[in-house]
Amino acid sequence: MFDNEDEVPDESPTEPPYVPPPPVPRPSRGRSELDERWARDNAAREAAKVAAAVEALATGRAAMAAILANPARRTGDDLDSLLAVNAWLHTHQKWFRINVRPGPAWDALNVANKELDKLTKANALAIANAEAANADLVRRVRNEAPVPVPTPLLQTLADVDAMARWLLAHWDDVVRCEVRYSGDGRDYDEQEITWALRVRLAAWTVWHQLQAQANAAPDIAEQLADLGLDLLSSWTTEPELRGLPGTHPIYVAIATIKPERDAASALWEQRLTTSAEGAGAAPDDNDEPELALDTSTRRIRDRQRADAIRRVYWHYQNLPIKPTAAEIFKMLKSLGARGQQSKLLKLYRAYEDDPDTADE
What we know:
The radius of gyration is 33 Å and the shape is extended. It folds into three domains: about 70-180, no CATH class; about 185-275; about 280-360, no CATH class. The protein has a two-stranded antiparallel sheet with strand order 1-2. Helix 14 (about 325-335) crosses helix 15. By secondary structure, the chain is mainly alpha-helical. Helix content is about 60%, strand content about 5%. It is built from 15 helices and two strands.
């Protein structure tokens, strides 16, 4: 009974042990109460998402209505749109390339590009000054507040919708339009670029179709105008609209024109992924005979030709709108390059793909 048999228990009187009172019964927090709480929180989150989506849609519709009310903005020909187009071309020149015929469209783009160059230089200077101020030891010792660093201007101005509006309005002036891919597959950035531009081009293409239908059927012109505005606004604010339920009227309206959207999207996917040389790239039968070159390794053997290609490439490098094939060939010949037009252009394109091909 006891660990030590010699130990005698203390038989002195002791107080009775304390017995706590029975606990006061409380309502059980069972599974049903937790489920109700989760349901209330989830409903609040969903309501907030819907409210944000409705607000984003209203903002997008107002912004798009302002664009539609301005013919110059609608075609991407106002200065703000042209700056946005040039900025987009600059930031995506690794993957996207177009050639534009000389003319009013080309001239307007180059005027805007010169203005953009001034703005970006001023922006770069402001960024450098802010970063230098923040790196100053005296400021850090004094624990002064950091100087706000401006956002790079090209990222701020680049707008895929402006690019789509301009490209659709001036497609007849485009000699060559190409989306380039690296390697055998498409990386994430390239897919995003192709998808975003194609979607905006398809949306604006369908909008023009709706406008034509409105002119032909004036009794439903107002409904078609609202449908076109819904289409353009939905793609502008697409990430926020994911908070809307699938039964929202905007999705019902857009589903009405799904065949037109799909057809326009397929058209622009084909146009943006097919490299097409303009008429200026046709070979000249009276040109010099083609020289035998080792094209399997894409090395340019003729040093004079290589130098001409390099000089032409860097001459046009800072222009977001690339020159036509005829302009490239003319400048190559003026610099002493010899060979058929088709061959010179092929070598020039190879150098564009990889400038190291001529650096033996």
